[in-house]
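Sat 14:20. Reprocessing the chain from the morning session after the first attempt stalled halfway. Input below, unchanged.
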Amino acid sequence: MDESTSNAANKAFWFLTVLFGLLLVLLVAGLLFEAKKSELQQTFENRAEAGIQQIAQNLSATDAILDALVGLNQAGDEMDPYLFTPFNEKILQEHPFILSSQYLTYISAQEENQFIAEMHALGFSQFKIHNLDLTDKQEELPHYLVTSFIEPLTPRSAKFMGFEWIGSDVIEHEIETAMTENRLMLVKAPSFMQAPHHFLLFKPTYFGRTVPENTQQRREQFSGLFMLLIDWQALTVSNNKRQDKE
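Finished this time. Tokens:
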């Protein structure tokens, strides 16, 4: 074998050696990538499942909270803000994804003046039934559904005191469903409630110690709604932080 043939053979040998080495590196990298991908996918699936379970638990907790509020209301003869304030403060403290708690009182048009006088007597001297722009309601209705309690009561949330919900026509259908079917309702909050990831969760109350049995009785004995404003984004972030700690 002459020198040129020997050099060509050496070059071919080294080329094949380098090529084999590259293929081996790529194979190992591919196996490591697949292993890591599988691990990340499993982690993601575990987190997703845990997140869904936690969201379900939190929503179940809000359902229980509303049941407790409704039960407390049914046990008394009338809505007493001094009774509900400490209870709602504890709710907001323990569940940071709940931004506010409201009670909406259902009154007839004939009861309007008396209701306003009662709110004034409770210390809300500027209370009136109004639209969102804080002007007096424009539409005369046979009944009104008015925010008469809100916690926390801050300068920002105070604008909802006296807000009339039926005439606002934002969740009128959902209110009707809750009232007639005694249902817990979860709906996207209207745009004027600050953010697109906010939701309203509400449940009806009735006069008397028990829930009326049929639709007609529920209409006649409907007294109002407890409403929670929920920050869905905060609820999700809270879940992720909790999982990171674990």
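Helices lie at 3-75, 81-94, 112-121, 172-181, 215-221, 232-245.
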